Every structure is written in structure tokens, then in C-alpha cells.
Amino acid sequence: MSLATDAADQPTLYKRIRADIEKRILTGEWPPGHRIPFEHELVARYGCSRMTVNKALSELAQADLIERRRRAGSFVRRPQHQSAVLKIADMRAEITALGRAYGYELTGRKLRAATAADRDRLGVKKAGKVVAITCRHSADNVPFAIEDRLIDLSSVPDAAAADFSREPPGSWLLHHVPWTEAEHTISAIVADDRAAEALDIAVGAPCLVIDRYTWRSARTITAVRLLYPGDSHRLVARFKGG
Amino acid sequence: MSLATDAADQPTLYKRIRADIEKRILTGEWPPGHRIPFEHELVARYGCSRMTVNKALSELAQADLIERRRRAGSFVRRPQHQSAVLKIADMRAEITALGRAYGYELTGRKLRAATAADRDRLGVKKAGKVVAITCRHSADNVPFAIEDRLIDLSSVPDAAAADFSREPPGSWLLHHVPWTEAEHTISAIVADDRAAEALDIAVGAPCLVIDRYTWRSARTITAVRLLYPGDSHRLVARFKGG
DNA sequence: TTGACTTATATGTCTAGACATATAATCGTG
DNA sequence: CACGATTATATGTCTAGACATATAAGTCAA
Q1: Residues of B whose CB is below 8 A from A240
Q2: What is the pLDDT averaged over residues A59-84?
Q3: Residue B156 in domain
């Protein structure tokens, strides 16, 4: 046994090294800027080859926990610009996860040549065909959110033939467009007449608005606006790492 | 030269292998579920050792782009549960980044033994001392957000002596608490009398609310509620990776 | 003091092997 | 056919080297 441990070491050695270092960083024992021991020191401490500690350190670097600089060493990174992971699963999953019955209703569907407003909303210059969809999601038969969506058919031609009367466009896209990037803008408004009626709330009640633009490899796919009743719905974001 | 390329290969070989595979996944050429070539096939294709392709594949696995299964092979992962990276920098940075003048005003500060409400809000059971702070952030002398914060002194004893009349508690904590986890809850409300006056908006105007709980290694540090005028402020979240 | 040159060193990448281990596939048996 | 045992195989981890390369630090001259 060339391992430095006498006890049974469940995880593999490089994972143990990684976990050891991670622990010291997370507990603050090694604060941001602190220099991690050199590879050759860790090699001596753990009695293994350099490739093994290198693998541990490389993974920590990939996870942005440390920064590695040639000739200088490896250093604990300072907490990144604060960022949060905001879970926005598709509506069905979101509502189902709450243990509530999911309901869906297509309220409008139009196929048309892109208007100037459409192009502006999708952020594209070229004209093309689009599908405009409005629909409503409900939980236990209570309105949960209304959706107003535009899909660029030049990016997703299949969407022209898709049947959105049963499957919500968000789910459909999620299963047909394998990899996406998106930008969300979250704001608050008060419900106007139309929103109030669709969501069964009072005019002037607060609403949470999420505007989401989704694209794939620099190609716009869809723009969607979701309107939630603000007092009943909450977006939960979990954030890790500074 | 054992490299399979004749052209000058700027990046290193394993990075090129990783990029090649990543590209095929991102363009959809290899859809979710597709089996990546076996390591020994990639070894043959690139004319390198197994460790080199293994490093490329390991990094893709760490980035959740592929999933590796013993004996079966490596497979393109299906787009994860949709998640967004929500940037919420500290207020000064946020406002400064907008090119506006940052203003800060401490409106209240109390040091007290934790009340039942405080303990509930911080999610702790044991009693202890807390600091309660209210303050206001402004951009170009226009109210930008009001903040209502509770700091657990048993986790951050230094906060008792900190001078929050000049430095906002958010910035102070960010620089004194090196590593944190947090949970955000985003909702919408309409402004009540107090909020309307502090933010200089009309009663009944929409407001964006962010409740943030921050802790470090399972230890609660602070709970904060931020109130933004909903029509002027926007939270932008950028999301990558399905 | 400053700038240009040199050197030492820590990380970056890679190899050609090795054995471990989980598991899909196959084979036998009741 | 169902089920348990066996086998083949792809990944997981590790070694003991090697050379490449960026750069901090030291050296020396203007």
C-alpha cells in the first residue's frame, strides 16, 4: 500500500485530496488569496504521484475554487461576483413538484410572417415566419401563470406543425431543442384588466413578470413573457459559492 | 510528432478533443442520449494516449455535458432542469456598474437579543444577539432600493462593532465573510405607505421583493429583504446550458 | 533607479504502461 | 422462460517518468 492512510479510505485518493482542500477553503481556514501547498508538497504529504494531486487541483480549478498560476502556485479564489442559481423548471414540472394538479389551456395560436414588433422582440433582423402563442397554466384549477410566447420558425421549423393544444410550448421546446442559452429579466407590475381577468385576481394586484429570451448557438429560438400573481407565487433561487 | 494534426494546433491536444466533442453536442449533431466514441476509439482517432482523452472526457463530465457509465460508455446528457444564473452583485457595484452615482443612507440600527420573530426569520433555534439594520440605497440621488436586514452576531461577532453608517452592511459582509451559501425568494408586492415614502413612489405601485438568507457551512449569517420599485428596476439573469 | 537579460521553478501537458471495478452481455441451469 | 453465475469490457484511478512553458525573482549594466 502506497497510500498514506491506514484507515479504510472509501473515496479514491485524488478525491480525498480534493475534499481535504475544499474543506479548508469552505471553512475559511484557507481564506481567499491563501496559497495552497505546492504540488510537490502535497505529493510528499499524501505519498502519491504528482499526476494524482494534479488531478485534484485541476478539478478545484475547473470549479473556480482555486486559481493556478505557473511558477507562483495555486491560490484560493475570492468569492466570485455574487450569483444565484435560479431554478425555473418547465411549468408542468414546477407545479407537479408542488404536489398540485397541473392544468393547461391554449388560449391563442397564430402563424404569421414576422412583423417589425416580432423581429424586435426576438432580436433578429431578418424577416421570417413566427408562431405566436398565448396560454394559461393552472395549479389545482387555480390560475398559476399566463404565458405569451413567440417562436422563430426559421430556428425551429418543427414548431409550425407541433400541436400545442395539449402540450405547453415550453415543454415541447425543452424536449425538442436540446441545448439553449437564455436571458431572464424579472420585474414587477400591477395587473391590468386583461391580466387580472386571466389570472382571476384584482386589477392593481402585484404581478411578477419574467421575460425570457432563449437561443441556441447565437440563434434566437423563442421569447416568452410569464405573468405570475405576485402574492401567491415565489421564485426560489439557491446560490452557492460567494 | 505523434499528434494527428498537421496544422499548428494552438490549444493543447486534450483541449482540442474536448472542444471537438463540445461543439458536436452544442450544435445538436450529437443529441442527448447519443453515445460518445469510446476512449480507445478517440485514442486511435487522435493518436494519443488514453490519459489524454480521459482528461478531456473527465472535464466534460465535470461540466455535466456528458455522463460516463462503466462498461457502457459516455453519453450526452439531456438538458438539465432549467436553471439560471442570477447576478446580484452588492448594491454599490450594481449601481456603479450602471454608471450611476451610488448613495447610501443608514436609517436604523439596533443591537438586541434575538426575539422569537428574529429567530424565526434567521431560521435558528438558539437565542443570541442580533443586529437589525434598515438602510436605503440610491442611484443619482433617486431611491433605488430599501433594505431591511438582520445579522446573527453568534455567527459574525465582528458585526457588532462594525460601522454601518458609511459602508452598507451588504458590502461589509461580502468582504468579511469569505464564503457563503444563500437562498433567494423573489416576489412582487404593492407598495404600502412606508415603502412608498422611502422609495418615493405611489402607494399601490408594484415593487420587486428579494428575500435573501445567507449562511456559511450550515450557520445562518444574515437575512435581508430588499425592496425595489418594480417598474424601474430589473433583475437580469443569464442562463446557460439547458 | 530603471530596464534588459537570465535563471529557477511551479504548473501544464503527455506517455505507456498497470490494476481496480462496475456492469452489460452471455451462458447455463432449473 | 426466469434467474443466477460468469465473462468481457469501458471507465476509474494511479504511477514514474518526460519535456514544455509561463513567470517570479534575481542579476547586471546603463
Answers
A1: 181-182
A2: 80
A3: yes
Q: Are A239 and B90 a contacting pair at CB < 8 A?
A: no
Q: Which residue has the higher pLDDT, B180 or B187?
A: B187
In a domain, residue B36? The reply is yes
The chain-wide mean pLDDT, for chain A, equals 82
The pLDDT mean for chain B works out to: 82
Q: Is residue A121 part of a domain?
A: yes
Query: Do A98 and A116 fall within a single domain?
Result: yes
**Residues on chain B touching A183 (C-beta within 8 angstroms):** 236-239
Of the pLDDT bands very low, low, confident and very high (cuts 50, 70, 90), residue B234 is: low
pLDDT (tens digit per residue) in B6-63? 334 468 999 999 999 988 886 678 888 899 999 999 999 999 999 999 999 999 999 8
Residues A98 and A29 in one domain: no
Number of domains in chain B: 2
> Are residues B99 and B198 located together in one domain of the fold?
yes
Q: Which of B161, B153, B156 is nearest to B176 (CA)?
A: B156
B contact test, residue of A18, A85, A179, A207 with most B CBs within 10 A: A179
Mean pLDDT of the region A162-170: 92
* Set of cell numbers at residue B34: 447519443
Q: Do B81 and A62 touch (CB under 8 A)?
A: no
How many Cβ pairs closer than 8 A exist between chain A and B? 186
Contact A208, B186 (CB under 8 A): yes
Output the domain CATH number for residue B103.
3.40.1410.10
Cβ–Cβ contact B97 with A under 8 A: no
**Residue of B31, B90, B178 lying closest to A32 (CB–CB):** B178
Q: How far apart are CA B151 and CA B220, in angstroms?
A: 9
Nearest to B242 by CA among B25, B16, B21, B24: B25
Q: Which residue in this structure is represented by grid cell 395549479? A: A139
Same domain, A70 and A95: no
Residues of chain A contacting residue B189, judged by C-beta atoms under 8 Å apart: 188, 206, 230-231
Quote the Cα angle for A154-A157-A163, to 5°: 140
| Same domain, residue pair B70 and B149 | no
ipTM: 0.60
Give A128 or A82, the one with higher predicted confidence.
Answer: A128
Domain range for residue A51?
13-76
The region, left, alpha or beta by phi > 0 then psi within -120 to 50, assigned to residue B33 is left
State whether B93 and B37 are in the same domain. Answer: no
A118 and A156: one domain?
yes
* A8 domain residue, yes or no: no
Asked if A35 and A154 sit in the same domain, the reply is no
